[in-house]
Amino acid sequence: MKRKFRKFIDKNNNNGILDSQTANAVYNWCLQQIKLEEIYPWNRVNCSRKFNNFYDVKGGFKTFVSLLAQRLPENSIELCKHVIKIDYMDECVKVCTEDGCEYSAEHIIITSSVGYLKQNMDKLFFPPLPSRKLKAFKSIDFKTMNKVYLQVDECLPDMQFQLIWTSKKHTNLPEWVYDIFAIEIKTNCLLFWFDGKGAEIIENEPAASLASICLNVFELFVKDVKISKAKRIIASKWK
């Protein structure tokens, strides 16, 4: 198995992105994950488990995605396709997109969020899903979650912390800030975690305003650090 893995890496690693040490580390890490899942039921695996060694891969995790994608037939990946209907009436499943395209397959795998399925499952599937599956989806308590990344000039110590709001009387801050539940810092990048209603509201918030308010919240909790402004902002969106 290891020989096949190394052969695959050597064959597809045209740009020399992965060295031998990193490739071996990835292989061993994958084996460790498999062993963990074999020993423990999936819902009992400790997802926060820490490993002794961490490896930085040039280009990030997308490097591995790119290597795998090279094995797929040309033009087999379609991006930015809004699926509006999944017809599984016949043996062949048909997937229809908003731009009028139609794709057929024997089997399909759907990886959308639970929140999206709860909002669209009544109109997405034809015929409608069985009542037991609809009931199962509706019983899942799932909130919207979004992230806001801020790049700053200042170099900060790495840290992460949860936010506990003891008061909601900050008149200079909008209501949605109270749905920030955690902040992570990595050198010159700040990550703000949102959930609930606030996570939905910020999707329509102007970037400059969102960045400024997030920094105000940061300075409210970390009083000994002053940040001039955000150089860049990236905010996730579901809608």
Automatic annotation (TrEMBL):
GO molecular function, one term: polyamine oxidase activity
Flavoprotein as UniProt keyword: yes
Gene3D superfamilies tied to this protein: 3.90.660.10, FAD/NAD(P)-binding domain (3.50.50.60)
Gene Ontology CC: cytoplasm
Pfam families reported for this sequence: Amino_oxidase
Main location: cytoplasm
Cofactor(s) essential for the protein: FAD
Keyword set, alphabetical order: Cytoplasm, FAD, Flavoprotein, Oxidoreductase
Amine oxidase domain span: 24-238
Source domain of life: Eukaryota
Localization annotation: Cytoplasm
Similarity comment: Belongs to the flavin monoamine oxidase family.
Name of the protein in question: Peroxisomal N(1)-acetyl-spermine/spermidine oxidase-like protein
Species in which this protein is naturally found: Leptotrombidium deliense
